[in-house]
Structures are given as structure tokens and as C-alpha cells.
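Risk mitigation, structural track. In case the binding assays with NA7 fail to produce interpretable data, a predicted complex structure has been prepared as a fallback.
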Amino acid sequence: MYIHKCCIDHCCVHAQAHKDGSLQQLLNGENEAYDYDLIVIGGGSGGLACSKEAASLGKKVMVLDYVVPTPKGTTWGLGGTCVNVGCIPKKLMHQTAMLSTAIQDARKFGWEFDESVTHNWETMKTAVNNYIGSLNWGYRVALRDKNVNYVNAYAEFIEPHKVKTTNKRGKETFYTAAKFVIATGERPRYLGIPGDKEYCITSDDLFSLPYCPGKTLVVGASYVALECGGFLAGLGLDVTVMVRSILLRGFDQDMANRAGAYMEEHGVKFIRRFVPVKVSVVLIAVGRDACTDKIGLDKVGVKVNPKNGKLPVNDEEQTNVPHIYAIGDILEGKWELTPVAIQAGKLLARRLYGGSTVKCDYINVPTTVFTPLEYGSCGLSEERATELYELVYHSLFWPLEFTVPGRDNNKCYSKIIYCSSSSLRHMNDRVIGFHYLGPNAGEVTQGFGVAMKCGVTKEQLDSTIGIHPTCAEVRRQRLTGSACLRLCFVSKMKNMTYLICRI
Ligand code: FAD
Ligand code: NA7
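Fallback model:
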């Protein structure tokens, strides 16, 4: 049978149009009726990725981004939390603190310099904020290059397909779109006690604080608290962390306590089982609230979890209102990480406008906590893994770089959790948890993340030849028969290396 090529092309266009919903829109005459194909609310990690991808697929896209100043009046540019008040300044200030350790090590390696070494907060703050400024500018240029219309204004829904925007001069403008993506992120929570907004700062203020904070009390014990407390102590400040219950809730507790113990040994004080009731000058890091309460979701019927303000979505990031989607930190039960928001945003745009069916995979996401001794993890914690039938291999180790300066012997630690042969058949021998406490944890953990995504087994890890001398190779110790003692690459430390078998 002969089929004319035009018919095939026509059918393909129809199939594509049906898949991405544009056929329905054309039938409804939707695209003509709206100002934009897509409006993205929030120009952070997720929102920027999604809007640029949608525009490169030929759609008319607007991104609305606005930073409500903190109670101290701090504000910042385009790019959201990660670039302005999250990952980027945090990692650069962590690096500043790590350099102090490097300076101490340097003497042992033969470097000679004057005794007095001091740190200038103002210089660090300015350098970090100049770099952030260049990133803000780069994001604006990228949006312009991709033909995304960026407007610096606060958005709220007033009708299912219409938002009201208010700019910093209070001017109101209205825009309509066929579809919306909400990517408004989170902002730090306050304590709700007398003096908190008056006398406390949060991570939103810390990274651009014009003066060195000096002696600091950090309230909270999750990763933002420990990372900030860690680098402040690394700069030589007197730091105390006030812990309500446990360190790093949600992470492997064995690893969390080791990271905390290292901080304590290096001068950070911990006050446990205390909460503040009144404050003078404090850094609070007691969690973050989703920015979903003032954006008119009630007016358009988007369901919100009233307990935490998070949005439940299906596995395509679609809310209960079909033309409204959500990505990033505001999602219920998903990772609050920049690469996750970016991946979800890109894949969503491709599904909406590129005919793709690929969904965001939220399983086995690798992450790192940048405490003074960095903690990288991927997959299940030991606590979670005990629900399965698992084996844990673990090992203390001493990085080569630490040996000559003679510091922190026996403090680094790595752990692999895998399903034993008699456990769930389809998971047989699979690595289900990776945990690493040591230098360059992010770099080490990233590779394990890839391997775990590919379903790596313990046997495959054992048969992978390591890179020597590195910290990443340490996990590759081989079991000697059924014995509990194994050889570690730091071979003289046999007594520090053992195997926990739960069979
Ligand atoms: P955001 O990046 O928060 O962007 C949301 C944007 O929307 C903001 O610009 C906000 O001002 C704007 N907005 C809100 N409401 C409106 C409105 N109504 N109208 C217009 N605009 C609005 N993640 C990592 O992966 N690695 C790390 O090392 C890391 N470190 C972190 C350290 C700290 C201190 C913090 C606080 C976070 C850290 N994160 C880290 C988390 C990471 O920053 C977030 O996961 C990521 O930024 C989430 O992206 P998002 O797009 O969901 O939201
Ligand atoms: P988290 O992960 O929500 O943790 C909050 C921490 O603060 C945790 O240790 C809490 O203790 C503690 N907390 C909460 N309320 C109080 C009060 N009232 N008093 C004392 N301590 C308290 O917050 P993070 O800021 O670390 O990170 C949130 C997100 O930001 C993260 O996922 C990234 O996206 C960036 P608890 O364990 O509940 O006893």
C-alpha cells in the first residue's frame, strides 16, 4: 500500500500535538486566548531550568521572580535560593574555612610564613557576593537569549489562568497563560518567640552580613545549621549549636553523630535537648516554610497540605488542577535540592512541549552535607535499610593528606549497605545505601550515585579497580572469607575495619 509522505508527516504532527496537549489547546482555541503558553512563578533552580527549556521548545514563556526582603531587609537578585543564599555562598564559605585547615597543614609540609594568620569577613563577603552578582547577571542574559520574558514582580493567582503581579514600586499588572509552573521555593522559618525577628538572623542574612557575626549561637541541628555553624567555627569564631533532639534528622544517624563528634572535637559546642525561649543575637536554622500561602492557590483550587504548605503532585509534577504544575522545594515528600529542582523543571518542559515521556527519578539521589568533615550519601540510611535484609560494610580510614600533618587519624568513615543474597530476590547483592564521611565528599559521592542508578552490586564494586591513593578507593576492601575482619587500604589499621552482618 502506498501512503503519501504528507500523510505520515501529518499523522506525526497530530500524534505529537495530541501527546503534548497542544491539539486539545488548538481545538479549544486556548493559545490565542492567553498572553503566554507558560508562566513560571519563581526564578530559582527549578523555575529557570523549566522556563528556558520550554522556550527552547518554541513556547512563549514568562518567568516571574521576586524576593521578599528578610525582616533585616536583606534581599538579592535573580536565581533563587541556591545561588544567592544557599549552595553557592555556603560552599564558598565552607571552602574559606577549609583553607584555614590547609594553612595549618602547610607548615607540616614545609611552608614557612609569619605566625599571625587572621581572617577578614568583609573581604570574604565581598568576594563571594561579587561572584553571586556575576551569576545573577548571567541568568538574566540567559533568559534574554532564550526569549523568556523575565519580570521582577511578585505573582499571585486571581483566576485559574490569570495572575496578578506586583513590582517593587507597587505597580500591578495582570498576565494570562495556558499553563503554569509553580516553583516558589521556601524561606527560613522563625522561632515564634519574643525577639526572634528583631534579634536573630537566618541563612538568608548570614551570607551577606556586612560585619563578622562573632560569637554565635546556632539554633537547629539540620544540615543548614551544621553547615553554617561548621564554617563559622572554621573561621575561628566561638560557635554553639543548640540541638532540640537529634542531629541531621532523616540522615543515617551513625554518620550524623560522627560528623557532629568531629565538629565538637574541633571546637564547636553543642547544647543538647534545649530550645530557646527568648533571644538576643542568634543565627536560627530551624527549617524552612514553603512559599505557597500568599500566591492565591485557594482562588484556583490547588490542593496544599495544610500542615506544611507543601503541594502534593502526581509523578508528572501535576497538581490537582490539570494546567497547574509544581516543582522544587515546595513539593510534598520530595528532595529539597537544586539538581532535583533543575531536573524536574527540564523534564517537565520536555513532556509538556517536546513530546517526551521521561519523568523525574527521585530515587537514589546523591547529596552531601558540607560539615567540617563532609558527609556524602546516596540511597538508604542504615536505619531505613534495616527494614530490608541487608549487610553493612564499613571502615574507618585515614586520608593520605592527613598523615603528614598528623591530624584526624581514624575519623573518616565509609559505609556501604547492600541486600544480602537471601533478601529480596530482584535486589540481590544490590547496593542500597552509600555513606561517606571525609574530604571531597561531594566529588566521591557523585560517582557512586551514577553506579547506584545503574543498579551496582557489591560484587561489581569489589571487582572495580580503585584509584590509588584516594579516599574513594577505601570502600573497595575485600572480605576475607566469612571473617568479620577485612584488610583496609590503610593496611596498618586492621583493628578499625570490620563488618556488621545482620543475618
Ligand atoms: P528557589 O531556588 O528557592 O527559587 C524560588 C524563587 O521564587 C525565589 O527567587 C523566590 O524569591 C521566588 N518567589 C517566591 N514566591 C514568589 C512569588 N509569589 N512571585 C514571584 N517569585 C516568587 N541544595 C543543593 O543541592 N546543594 C546544596 O549544597 C544546598 N545548600 C543549601 C544551603 C542553604 C543554606 C539553603 C537554604 C538551601 C540549600 N540547598 C542546597 C537547597 C537549594 O537551594 C534548593 O533545593 C533549591 O534552591 C530549590 O529550588 P526551587 O526552584 O524549588 O526554589
Ligand atoms: P530542617 O531540615 O527542617 O531541620 C530543622 C532543624 O531545626 C531540626 O534540627 C529541628 O529539630 C530544629 N528545630 C525546628 N524547630 C525548632 C525549634 N522551635 N527550636 C529548636 N530547634 C528547632 O531544616 P534546615 O534549615 O536544615 O533545611 C531545610 C531545607 O533548607 C533543606 O531541605 C534545604 O532545601 C534547605 P528536630 O530534629 O525537629 O528536633
